[in-house]
Amino acid sequence: MERIKKFIYIMPFLLYMTFFFLYGLYYVFMTSLGYNRILTKSYFTLDYYRDVLSSKEFYESLIYTIKINSIAALLAFILTVIVIFLVFLSRRKGYFYTKFFQKVIEAPVFVPYLVSAYGILLLLMRRGVISNFLLKIGIISSMDEFPILTNDQYGIGIILTYVWKALPFMTMMSLPVVFRIDKKWDSLGKIYNLSNVAFFKKIVFPLVFPTLSISFFIVLTYLFAAFETPYILGVTHPRVLSVLVFDTYTKGNLDLRGKIMVMNILISSISLLFGGIMCLALKFFTKFQEREW
User: Fold this and answer.
1) Where are the transmembrane segments (predicted)?
2) What total number of domains does the chain contain?
């Protein structure tokens, strides 16, 4: 009875949010098919889909988005493995205070992407903090000698921001698995005379890999539709898909509204595809972990 009362209390909020969510989906889908009351012409058409899917600019943005996000997610994956290895060594040898190290690594999780992007911009731009410091100590003689690391066509600043944010998230997801490794695994390592590297490779990493893989797909799914970081640190060409949609929308041309909705649908569909892969991986690795533990 108490649960029913709680559900009744939140029912107005749920109905309110559900209505606007479903109406948003309906509006996007119908607009992509040509039904838009704002325009004088409103009829069924697939021209918007045809225009987007035959657009060179769309495919350039799609490839650029996938490239930037994949590189960032892979780098975060590799660095997370290194961090986990350091934590593993610290727990066995006591090289440093593990809890403090863990808190330092996880700190960027609580910094918004918008703030992170501005921070990277202020640090790494040609007239930023680092370039000014290098100029003052004489390593470079002018600002122009400092490499372009932000607002560049290769997306270096975007990748650095993504890695800085994804690394602590993937670490935070994976470390509990490392902490669950009890003494029976240590005894097994001693029986087979495994070194620290061999123990990590044969025992720790296989146990952590399922969680790492799921975290990888979560990061990839989120980054695909991310907007703030590439908007602040990117260039006008090439652009990621989210920035392309925003720039098209801000042109103020109502005739482009259908194309914008088509691009939104395609972005959402690809994100859902990544989400589906993540769910399948979660089911597979859950069974794997149960068997391993």
Assistant:
1) 7-29, 68-89, 110-134, 154-182, 203-225, 261-285
2) 1
Is residue 1 one of the residues assigned to a domain?
A: no
Give the angle subtended at the CA of 258 by the CAs of 36 and 41, to the nearest 5°.
Answer: 40
Q: How far apart are CA 55 and CA 6, in angstroms?
A: 50
CA 269 – CA 216 distance, rounded (Å): 18
Paired tokens of 288:
């794997």
Which of 4, 150, 16, 175 has its CA nearest to residue 83?
Answer: 175
96 φ/ψ angles, rounded to the nearest 5 degrees: -150, 170
Is residue 215, in this structure, part of any structural domain at all?
Answer: yes
In a domain, 121, yes or no: yes
Identify whether 5 is part of a domain. Answer: no
Query: What's the pTM?
Result: 0.85
**Of 64, 73, 70, 59, the residue nearest 266 (C-alpha):** 59
Contact 260, 249 (CB under 8 A): yes
User: Mind listing the pLDDT tens digit for each residue in 225-234?
Assistant: 899 999 999 9
